[in-house]
Specification:
By secondary structure, the protein is an alpha+beta fold. The chain has helices at 44-52, 100-104, 106-110, 115-129, 144-157, 174-191, 202-208, 226-231, 236-241, 259-271, 365-373, and strands spanning 4-11, 21-28, 33-37, 59-64, 67-71, 76-77, 85-88, 162-166, 194-199, 211-216, 219-224, 248-251, 278-283, 289-290, 302-313, 318-324, 327-333, 344-349, 354-358. Helix 4 (115-129) runs antiparallel to helix 5 (144-157). It is globular and about 75 Å long.
């Protein structure tokens, strides 16, 4: 399977409009499952459509394997039908008057694949996706999840070098989305196809991807494994976009007037005075701990006193709302909390769990090294 390289890619829809995609440099590895993740309007679908050949570049170059498929500088543009890519949209786009078998072999018929080979490939892919028993039915007779499997089968039957998926699970209910995520993961492991998957759903990206590219307002923010994106967000945007409940952000600029800001400022001033340029600190909800008789606040940890203002069960876990002088802090726990609304508690966060950003919102690498080595006892 080919490697995909996007170099200096820009896309603008008019001289007076901001670039939908700006100076994008991205490499998608051979056999990789890459998720383009970001909010609506960030440029992820535009990027996918440029890879597919459905959008022309304003500047830059796209190379698939050894072949340049789009280059403004070289004047090269290979049309979509010659790029050996499969594209699955949010809508299933099935032919309503054709049976499931005919929908699945549609691309093979266009390529004049011999009948015996065509039938074998269709049978194999339908078995893999569990839709062989529906081969004589029509799309209207299938559920949404089954129709989405047919759309995937149609693309996989032609054995594309690259599979491009544009939010294909958005129209499914929660149970079917979960089922189809597992199906996509299994298909990737089995076929080893290079997959580029567009989604705004962070959990979809976290559970499916081998690599995630986070985008915002046309700009690439970070590329990394799901663990990298979550555990070491490159900036505040990535930290706040990925995670549910979202990360707690403590502002330290402008004198840190909030109670939590003062606690954090004092902590860094006394414990890690060598750090400078801190603009804000991020605390993941699951990193917060409540101290008790047997678990006092460890020396060296960031901690303070708070009031419990809410205990919210979510099924298997709990979200606990803490209040510090009307400032909210959210924590999560997978153990039934022995607390109730109105309790006064001590909380703490270990140094290595703190995400430190500068005034521009970029991660402070110096803080990672220092806090990672800090001792608590």
């Amino acid at each position: 399977m080919p490697r995909i390289n996007l170099r200096g890619v820009d896309k603008s829809y008019g001289s007076n409009s901001a670039n939908a995609v700006a100076n994008l440099n991205l490499e998608i590895g051979d056999g990789e499952f890459m998720c383009l993740l970001g909010p609506s309007g960030c440029g992820k679908t535009t990027t996918l459509r440029m890879i597919a050949g459905l959008e022309h570049l304003t500047n830059g170059e796209i190379q698939v394997g050894a072949r340049v498929v789009d280059s403004v500088g070289q004047g090269v543009f290979i049309p979509p039908e010659k790029r050996q890519m499969g594209l699955v949209f949010q809508s299933y786009a099935l032919w309503p008057h054709m049976t499931i078998e005919r929908n699945t072999d549609f691309g093979l018929r266009l390529r004049n694949t011999p009948k015996a080979e065509r039938e074998q490939r269709v049978t194999d892919v339908m078995k893999t996706l569990g839709i062989e028993k529906y081969r004589d039915r029509y799309p209207s007779q299938l559920s949404g999840g089954q129709q989405q499997r047919v759309a995937l089968a149609r693309m996989l039957a032609v054995n594309p070098e690259v599979l491009l998926l544009d939010e294909p699970l958005s129209n499914l209910d929660a149970a079917l989305r979960l089922e189809m995520r597992a199906e996509l993961k299994r298909l990737h492991n089995e076929f080893k196809t290079t997959i580029v998957f567009v989604t705004h759903d962070q959990w979809e990206a976290m559970t499916l991807a081998t690599t995630i590219a986070v985008m915002s307002e046309g700009h690439l923010q970070q590329v990394g494994s799901p663990n990298d994106i979550y555990d070491r967000p490159a900036n505040r945007f990535v930290a706040q976009f990925v995670g549910s409940p979202p990360i707690n952000i403590v502002e330290l600029r402008d004198g840190a007037t909030s109670k939590l800001g003062k606690i954090a400022s004092e902590y860094f001033a006394t414990r890690h005075a060598e750090l400078s340029g801190i603009g804000s600190v991020g605390i993941r909800p699951e990193s917060i701990r409540i101290a008790g008789p047997d678990t006092p606040v460890p020396q060296g940890a960031l901690g303070g006193k708070a009031e419990i203002t809410g205990v919210l069960p979510t099924g298997g876990s709990w979200i606990v709302e803490l209040s510090l002088a009307n400032e909210k802090l959210f924590m999560t726990t997978h153990q039934s909390p022995e607390i109730k609304t109105g309790d006064r508690i001590d909380f703490f966060v270990k140094p290595k769990a703190l995400h430190v950003f500068d005034a521009q919102g970029n991660r402070l690498a110096d803080a990672d090294k220092l806090l990672g080595a800090a001792k608590v006892h």
